[in-house]
TrEMBL record:
GO terms for biological process: surfactant homeostasis. This is Putative BPIFA4P protein. It holds the Pfam family LBP_BPI_CETP. InterPro entries: Bactericidal_perm-incr_a/b_dom, BPI_fold-superfamily_member, Lipid-bd_serum_glycop_N. Residues 81-206 form the Lipid-binding serum glycoprotein N-terminal domain. Belongs to the BPI/LBP/Plunc superfamily. Plunc family. It is found in: Secreted. The keyword Signal applies. Keywords: Secreted, Signal. The gene is LOC112633557. SUPFAM superfamilies: Bactericidal permeability-increasing protein, BPI (SSF55394).
Length: 229
């Protein structure tokens, strides 16, 4: 039986990991494939496509719209035309990474997608996005002294989001993107994280028993390695 301890916490500030992570030793390609296919069956991709970013984006563009007024007619009444749509999301292979902490590891969920962006009255353009969500897994002993798998800290950080425009932008569009890039990453991290973390939570809670056993063995193997060095 799985034990999901505490709440999944979405970290949307400017927090960064203090140590580099490496792929966990001993992990099999079959286990990674089972995790990836299981997450696909859990409707991970539809949860990305149905995320609404309209409200948060409109608030962010309230600041930059005043700057754009100097380039043309006032845009005060055009904030409602700020839109972004997640299109063609793809889940890459899930991986498991080591951590400095004992009896812990990190499940990394990487994905890519297109963002269809409408900025005020500017011509819509497509941007390519790549990011990943990380979830801690750790071992806890139950009352019988046996290890159980516990989870926490579902994280989609702004620093883990890369956004690149695929087409040459008009000067006005470049001006807008340059001025709101940090806010855009914060918004995407916050809104997408709120939408997909519950999906990941449910997926992990319902992992098949053989997958749970393999994950427990992997973390214990890593613990043995850390002790020997």
């Amino acid at each position: 039986m799985l034990n999901v301890s505490g709440l999944f916490i979405l970290l949307c500030g400017l927090l960064a990991s203090s140590s580099a992570q490496e792929v966990l030793a001993g992990v099999s390609s079959q286990l990674l494939n089972d995790l990836t296919q299981g997450l696909l069956r859990a409707d991970f991709l539809p949860s990305l496509q149905t995320t609404g970013l309209q409200k948060s984006l409109s608030s962010a563009f309230n600041v930059v719209s005043g700057l754009l007024d100097i380039l043309g007619p006032p845009l005060t009444n055009e904030i409602d035309t700020v839109r972004i749509q997640v299109k063609n999301p793809q889940l890459l292979q899930v991986s498991i990474e080591s951590t400095p902490q004992r009896k812990e590891a990190t499940v990394r969920v990487p994905f890519i997608s297109e963002l269809i962006v409408q900025l005020l009255t500017l011509k819509p353009f497509t941007a390519n996005m790549q990011s990943d969500i990380k979830v801690q897994i750790r071992l806890e002993k139950n009352v019988g002294g046996r290890y159980e798998l516990a989870f926490g800290n579902c994280r989609l950080l702004p620093e883990a989001i890369w956004i690149q425009t695929g087409a040459q932008l008009a000067p006005a569009a470049k001006f807008v993107v340059a001025n709101i890039e940090r806010n855009l990453k914060n918004i995407v991290a916050h809104d997408l994280g709120q939408k997909v973390c519950p999906v990941i939570n449910k997926w992990l809670y319902n992992l098949e028993q053989h997958v749970v056993k393999e994950l427990i063995n992997l973390v214990l193997l890593q613990e043995k390695y850390q002790v020997t060095i």
